[in-house]
């Protein structure tokens, strides 16, 4: 597949994935606002922090390394061995579900049954839903490797909508069911997701469309584990790469979900405060993650396909290197500008957003400071996503192994910093610790990218330098909206709030116009791709 074609398909995948993330975040956003009026903060805290952490830990540890290894390189491979390797995620998921389920049931603090009923059933259901989701892993990797954009959009949209309809229905009709509500909804989500992928491939494989595309898997039976006589069960090169990524994924999960592990295992916040933190966290990431995560996932595939893992720049096809460097530079500029915009305007509008969303329960206390810090964290998330997706797509096995030691040290430091900052600053300390964590990871990735392109004429890291005029506009907007918040927000009535919003809208318009004038190359890239 030509590099330009891969870029076009990857951009479409990123755009569709971004729309999916909009759906997920908007649904979560609305669901939290709805359930706050029917259920206790403690119940929401247990579901969104404790049980969701169990689910995400199981699926991440069971499949993340397999995904990264099996999506590296060309789609022309022995797919029988790759599919065999992917089926190992299921027994691994069962193992993690059992081990972590026992920890969640017997070693962690059990919520008060009168406030959060049916906790044991919730642990079992969320662990089981992770195993069900892993049953669709071979189909997911095949679809992602061949850039089946519509399949991912439809499957994940249907599963999210089904989950939400069931949750809302049960919350209205049977609010006393407690965790049974979210347990049933989570099982439905996983089941619908897997069934969508399975049904698609049952209809697609063997069809004229599959034959026309020369799809490497011809029969549905080929999606199951297959033993080939006198051949290895798996591709050992992929298996060794998977093991390297597995060691890394364990550490990355701690860094990604570190604050939830600290909350869960060290009891630095009660379940009610955990619920408020999670609500603010979802609100803070509503705009950020629906853009950055799809870009990271989709362009990891692009860089892995266009450039060969472990090879120096001079040993690659120079046309592909030029395209990859240009795309990396423009992606860095894109996410940097989005991150800066959220950081600058998020500071002055955090209290207003929380007041509209959850009333005084969220807008008083540490809520606004938490969201302001999260606005800064978004900037770190933006840059880290793109720099790491390039770095991980190009690292050879030895480099991945070396990086694992860096991640181990960083994990320990991060957990210690989270613990102490939380004791000093409350839940805001979690965000500050995450900023530190992301800053170190960004520094490592920038160092790798600089060394990779050293000796060539390409400087993709120039994408991290905005134009001086745009920087001045950002500074001016931050000052103006800050004064606007002091004078108009948030206890002087709706007219004052509307004036505050109008000031922000004018500053945002000035920022966007400046972007259009100073970043013409980026604008062309966004429009064309």
SSE arrangement:
Elements: H1 3-35, H2 41-70, H3 79-87, H4 89-106, H5 119-134, H6 137-145, H7 149-173, H8 179-204, H9 208-212, H10 236-256, H11 258-266, H12 271-306, H13 318-358, H14 360-363, H15 367-394, H16 397-425, H17 428-453, H18 468-488, H19 494-518, H20 520-528
Transmembrane segments: 12-31, 43-62, 83-107, 119-141, 153-174, 180-205, 330-354, 374-396, 403-422, 461-483, 495-517
Protein name: Protein RFT1 homolog
Organism: Pitta sordida
Structure description:
Pfam families: Rft-1. It comes from Pitta sordida (Hooded pitta). It is a multi-pass membrane protein. The chain is mainly alpha-helical. The protein folds into three domains: 1-264, no CATH class; 268-458, no CATH class; 466-528. 79% of the residues lie in helices and 0% in strands. It has helices spanning 3-35, 41-70, 79-87, 89-106, 119-134, 137-145, 149-173, 179-204, 208-212, 236-256, 258-266, 271-306, 318-358, 360-363, 367-394, 397-425, 428-453, 468-488, 494-518, 520-528. α1 (3-35) runs parallel beside α7 (149-173) and α2 packs parallel to α5 (119-134). The chain is globular. The model has no long low-confidence stretch (mean pLDDT 84).
